[in-house]
Structures are given as C-alpha cells and as structure tokens.
Design goal:
Catalytic activity (chains A, B): O-phospho-L-serine + 2-oxoglutarate = 3-phosphooxypyruvate + L-glutamate; 4-(phosphooxy)-L-threonine + 2-oxoglutarate = (R)-3-hydroxy-2-oxo-4-phosphooxybutanoate + L-glutamate
Largest sheet of chain A: 7 strands, mixed
Distance between the termini of chain A: 25 Å
Number of helices of chain A: 11
Helix content of chain A: 25-40%
Protein name (chains A, B): phosphoserine transaminase
CATH superfamily of the largest domain in chain A: Type I PLP-dependent aspartate aminotransferase-like (Major domain)
Shape of chain A: globular
Family (chains A, B): Belongs to the class-V pyridoxal-phosphate-dependent aminotransferase family. SerC subfamily.
Number of domains of chain A: 2
CATH topology of the largest domain in chain A: Aspartate Aminotransferase, domain 2
Cofactor (chains A, B): pyridoxal 5'-phosphate
Largest interface: A-B, 53 and 52 residues
Order of helices and strands of chain A: EHHEHEHEEEEHEEEHHHHEEHEEH
Oligomer: homodimer
Strand order of the largest sheet of chain A: 2-10-9-8-5-3-4
Strand content of chain A: 15-25%
Pathway (chains A, B): Amino-acid biosynthesis; L-serine biosynthesis; L-serine from 3-phospho-D-glycerate: step 2/3
Chain lengths: 361, 361
C-alpha cells in the first residue's frame, strides 16, 4: 500500500510529530503503566496545563478526559439538564446532540437551518428557563463556522443557561472567549492530529454546581461519568476509568509541540490555508461553494459541491496519494470535504491546491 | 528510565508482539483511516472472527466494541434491566457493578462475601423475576475465580434471567460455555496485553430482544450505545462512535498470534504458571494465601498477604526490574498481586519465582 496523505476531516493525518512520540511512548512504557500511577497522572496534569495555555482557558475551568465527543453529548444531558435544552442545528453533528437530548426524555427544542448556513439567532425564541444552549463552533459535516459574536449575544440574553460548545473540528484553531461559555468539548482526531479514542471536556464551576444541584434534587446524573466524580478523580489528575493513557501522553506531547510553535502562528497559517482552499473552490470550474456566505466558511473543513460525482474526484486524488473526504450523509457523492488542520503544512496545502487546480474531470 | 517488566494485574506488560504490530500500524496508516472505512471494517470483522474462534463463541452471539468494561457495566443496566438485578459480590469490581445498578435507580440485590472468598450460591435467594444476574469470573481485586459450575447452576434455576459475566482478567484464559451465559465483557489491557482504551461486549440474541422490548415498553435504553444501535452498526462491522481503531487493529493482530499459538497451549501454560506462583505463596516464609480455598485461586491474578509492608516488596522488586501490583483498596500495603497473563512466558514467571524465592525482607 503506497503511503497516502489524509486530508479527511477526521480521523485525518497524524500530527507530524506523532510517530516519534509513539516510539518514545514505547520506550517509556506508557502503555503498560497503571492509569492511576504517578507517571500517568503526570501526563494528565501536563496535558491539561498545555491545553489551558494553548486555548487560553481561564481559572475556574476543569479539563476532563472521556472516550469521545459523542460520549460527551450524552454526559452533558445527564449532568446538566433536568428538563430543557435548546440546540442551534445546522448539520449532522449539531442535530445529533439534539437527538441525544430527546432520547434521554428531555424537552429539547431546536432552531434549525438548511445545511451550509446557520439558523437565525433570535434570543427571544429561546425559553427563559432553558438549562443548556448548544452551538457547533465548526460543523464538520457542512464546513460552517458559527460566528462567536452570535454565541456571545445568546450568553448575554440567557445568563442563567449553560452555553455548550462543540469544538470538535474547531479547537485550538478557532479562538473563543471561554469566559462567555460554560461547557466545551472536542475529540483529538481532528485538529490535534491524534489517533481516535479520546474526548476532552472542559467545564466551569457553574457546570459542577448544576450537576450537584440536579443530584441533590433527586435526579440521577449517571454512574462513573458524573461531573462530581470526574472532578474528584481529575483533582488527582486521574481518570474515572482505565482510559487510553497513550492518547493522553500523545496529547501532552503534541500540545507541547503546538505551544513551541505558538498558537498565533498556527492560527495565522490556518487562515492562509483556509483562504487558499476557499479560493480553489471559487475559481475551479468544476466546483462551487456549499457555504454561500463567505463569513460562515470554515477555515478547517472546506466543502465544495462538485459538478461531476464526487467519488470520481476522490478516486483520482487518492491515486495521486491525497485522500479527501466525501460529502456527509445526503451529500455523499455530491461534495468533497477537505480538512486543513494544523498538521497540514502550508506547503502541503499549496501542493494540494496546485494538484486539484490542474485536474479536470 | 531502565526498562521494566510489568506483572501488574492490568494495565500490564504488552503482549510480546505489540511493538511490531504498532510499527506495522504506522505503515498501514491505521490511525489515519476513517472508522467507517472498508479498511477499518476489515479490522473489526477479523478481530471478531478471531475472538469467536479463540473463545469458542457460538452462533447467535454478537461482539461489540465500546470504550471500557466500566462503560459496559452501565450499558448493561441501561439496555437489559427495567427493575431488578442481582449481583454476586466478592471484590471491588463485582461490587462496583452492583453500585452502578443502584445509581441508575434499579432494585439491585446482592449476595456478598468476604473478599478472598465467594458468596454462597443459593438460587432460592434470587427472586424469580430478576432480570440480570452477574458474576465476576475472575475478581481482579482479590484473585478469586468463580467456579463455572456455580454459574451454570444459577442459569438452570433462572432460565429467564440474563446471565452476565465479567471476564475482565479471565478471558481468554478461563474457559466458559457461552451457551450457558448471555452477556460477557472484558477490557483488552489484561490477558490480551493491549494498551488500555477498548472494552469488548459479547451478547446473544436474548439480550438484543430484551433491549428491544424494554424500549418498546417505553423505557429509555440510552442514546448511541443501545444494543439495537450497536447491532445496526456492528452488522456492517462499524462502531457507534469514532473509536480507538488502533486498538481494534492490535486486537486483531494479537488474537491472530494467539490462534497461531493455540488456545489449548495458552491455557496449559497458564495453569502451569498459576500453580508455580501459588506454590511460591505457599512456600515463602513471608507470604500467605489471601484466597484460602485452593480451588478458588485464580490462575491469572495471584494474591499474597505479606508479613511486612507490601510496599517494601514492591520497591525491592521494582529495583530489580519487576513491577508487581499492590493490594487493592483496603488491602493496599498488605498484599502483592501478581499477574500471570498470556504475554508472561513460562521462563519469565520462573525467573520471577526464583527472584522472589531468594528475597527476604
């Protein structure tokens, strides 16, 4: 099998230093130590400190490790919602979180838009007693970024609600003011360039208090993944179950590399790479933009409608060694999705740009 | 850091072929492919076929991948219990499953024994309408094996109940007749010698039907980890979320190695190694058996009470390059626990035997 470069929107290309870190992990016997050992706790602590520094997470916020962002949807409803959640839905993933809330018997409401756009943000439509309001900062399925100002507007109008942010393919590239949100989460196989198998959940003390109150009021908040239990273990830099310690180690290593590079540099490069790929979609005769509104176009997941079946583009690019993503769900066969994550260098994105520019199908 | 050999009862020493497989995984870009790709599905299918063959799992049983055995405790209650569960509790882990059931609001009953023993198995004490009855085939915290005949006796007396088996540090070493149980689960960082981060859940069609009935009767069975959803995805050899694909790949590889060695050979060697370590505990002037009843002594996790603080033994052995486990919970400082898993060769166990035999503290 010839080696390929993955531009799929997660799992994607590994961060370029992962292979070396994996070899070091074997030397340090990271996969053999107990998840409650001092060695594993040191990885946990260091990874958390790095994330706080990289994403400018203020005091009073906690970072917990779970199995996936999917799990975190469920844990948020279990811990943070007694009755009512409200979801801004504009893609497969934001809709799925809404479905989770309904499955768990909550009164879930949504403001929905056509894929490729965002719903109108009218705070008056959100009931005053809503407990949790969710946004996908970057909809991986559609390549739409939710402008943070719209989120801050809702925070202002609903200061009592928990503001929950899906940062899956956004963090750490897209900057957000954590003081204006309460719960945020991501999985590591997107912008962090790690193997899948770890979800990261960031919550403030309001979330902890909400879970404690829900429990005190006689409602179940779950078993081992309750916020009080995550906090109890997390304060010792321990997880709530025998977790993928290797991934915490790799996250520690890759965030160290990112800090050394500098988050500003990573973000500037992301803007450049994103604009280049958007230009590709604008200029290429076979493509047009799925996301019509320029200011909603994601820097990290670029989506093009293809005038011929997208599988042909995918196959042809794969034969050249570049793997890009297909359209998601109903858009399969009609779109390509290209990830531009921190591991994808400017040079690599330029090479992809030139390659696709020279193709006619 | 000098390289050590882990005899801890999980996470433990990696299966001796894992390092090579990890290098191959990098070549095959296992950590970069989509979890729903044909490549990942092929790993899933092959791993399942290997497990069925290795553990003699009959037709009508399904194998699903989740994040941990801890998660599977929770999913079993959510999917399989409306009101009543019954737990044979004789250690930290069997008790924890009972606690999970109570946390989720069920009427959980238990038959409890002192650690180091098993509870009396009197089927008449189990209410006739019990929905799920649980046993730990090997209590990792105490080194006690639950004789399978006792389990089969309960199956016979309660044919309507789901018989649920914690096989965490037992499978594939301890043989069980799957036709006499319904749900079984383990995590891969014990006898399979893999990095932590994957739980394996084996269920028969009775479990699927029970979950469907629970749901049809208007009870929530969860969100993405419901048995119908696991089955829907699993029938395409796909998982229900972006899972640790690397671990499924490694499980496929290690089970292939185990099949090549032969399960009979692995079990014979386990018997020999277990007896040798038990003899060590019997003969050594500083040790005595925590598990008094010889026929309850585990082959895979050997527990010795130490006449001097166990930390001294652990430190001294660590300085010689051998890492053994401490006592669990209240027994910390009073016991050592030694894992004898398939990756620990006869020669290695003999070396450990000789080393400890020559020590006086």
């Amino acid at each position: 099998m010839a080696r390929k470069i993955y531009f799929t929107p997660g799992p994607s290309a590994l961060y370029f230093t992962v292979e070396e870190h994996l070899k070091q992990a074997l030397k340090e016997q990271v996969m053999e130590v107990n998840h409650r050992s001092k060695q594993a706790a040191a990885y946990y602590q260091h990874a958390v400190e790095n994330l706080k520094s990289l994403m400018n997470i203020p005091e009073g916020y906690h970072v917990f490790f779970l199995s996936s962002a999917t799990e975190i949807w469920e844990r948020q409803i279990q811990n943070l919602v007694v009755d009512k959640s409200y979801h801004f839905c504009n893609g497969a993933f934001s809709n799925r979180f809404y479905e989770f809330s309904k499955s768990l018997g909550k009164q879930a409401l949504k403001s929905e838009s056509k894929f490729g756009t965002i719903p109108e943000v009218n705070p008056d439509n959100i009931p005053k007693d809503t407990e949790l309001i969710s946004f996908a900062l970057n909809e991986t399925s559609t390549g739409v970024t939710f402008p943070v100002e719209e989120i801050y507007k809702v925070r202002k109008s609903h200061p009592e609600a928990i503001i929950a942010i899906d940062g899956v393919s956004a963090f750490p590239v897209i900057d957000i003011d954590f003081a204006q949100i309460d719960s945020a989460y991501f999985s590591v196989q997107k912008c962090f360039g790690l193997p899948a198998g770890l979800g990261v959940w960031i919550v403030n003390n309001r979330c902890i208090e909400k879970a404690l109150k829900k429990e005190a009021d006689g409602h179940s908040i779950g078993t081992y993944q309750t916020l009080p239990n995550l906090l109890k273990n997390g304060s010792k830099f321990q997880t709530t179950y025998t977790i993928n310690v290797l991934n915490i180690y790799l996250l520690m290593k890759v965030t160290t590399d990112m800090l050394n590079k500098g988050i500003d540099m990573i973000r500037r490069e992301s803007t450049y790479k994103g604009l280049l790929l958007q230009k590709l979609v604008t200029d290429h005769p076979s493509f047009n933009h799925f996301v019509a509104d320029e200011k909603l176009r994601s820097k990290t997941v670029i989506v093009a409608n293809t005038s011929t079946p997208s599988q042909e583009w995918i196959d042809e690019l794969t034969s050249k060694g570049f793997v890009v993503g297909n359209g998601y769900g109903d858009y399969k066969g009609k779109q390509i999705r290209i990830a531009s994550f921190p591991t994808h260098s400017k040079e690599l994105i330029e090479l992809l740009y030139d390659t696709i520019n020279g193709m006619k199908l």
